[in-house]
Amino acid sequence: MTSLNVSPRTSVSPQQLLSEQVRRILSAPVYDLAIETPLQPAPALSASLGNQVLLKREDLQPTFSFKIRGAYTRLSRLSPEQRA
């Protein structure tokens, strides 16, 4: 994992920090496993709130969970002994 070399004497703008974080997210190896899930209209909720509501269907991941990123990150950091 790479990180910005930030110290109290280093001047890093919020935009640089955000750009680095977005780059790290988009290059995460979890995307080798995860699929792009659809946005699904929620008509009843939309009508109730008077605004369009879309649900992001992360439950359609192969793991049936939206927690795939955290689980993958945790598992990928296990030592060979821990994986055995």
Fold topology:
Layout: H1 14-26, E1 39-41, H2 43-49, E2 54-56, H3 68-76, H4 80-83
Antiparallel strand pairs: 1-2
Describe the structure.
- With 84 residues, the chain is mainly alpha-helical.
- It has one domain (17-83).
- The chain is 39% helix and 7% strand.
- The protein has helices at 14-26, 43-49, 68-76, 80-83, and strands at residues 39-41, 54-56.
- Strands 1-2 form a two-stranded antiparallel ribbon.
- The longest helix is centred in the first third of the chain and has 13 residues, at 14-26.
- The radius of gyration is 19 Å and the shape is flat.
- The chain starts with 13 loop residues before the first helix and ends with a helix.
Supply the number of structural domains: 1
Computed structural class: mainly alpha
Largest sheet, if any?
A: 2 strands, antiparallel
What's the helix-strand series? HEHEHH
Average pLDDT, rounded to a whole number, is 81
Terminal residue distance: 23 Å
Share of β-strand residues: 5-15%
- Computed Rg: 19 Å
Q: Tell the overall outline.
A: flat
Number of helices: 4
Which segments are poorly predicted (pLDDT under 50) over 5 or more consecutive residues?
A: none
Number of strands: 2
**How do the strands line up in the largest sheet?**
1-2
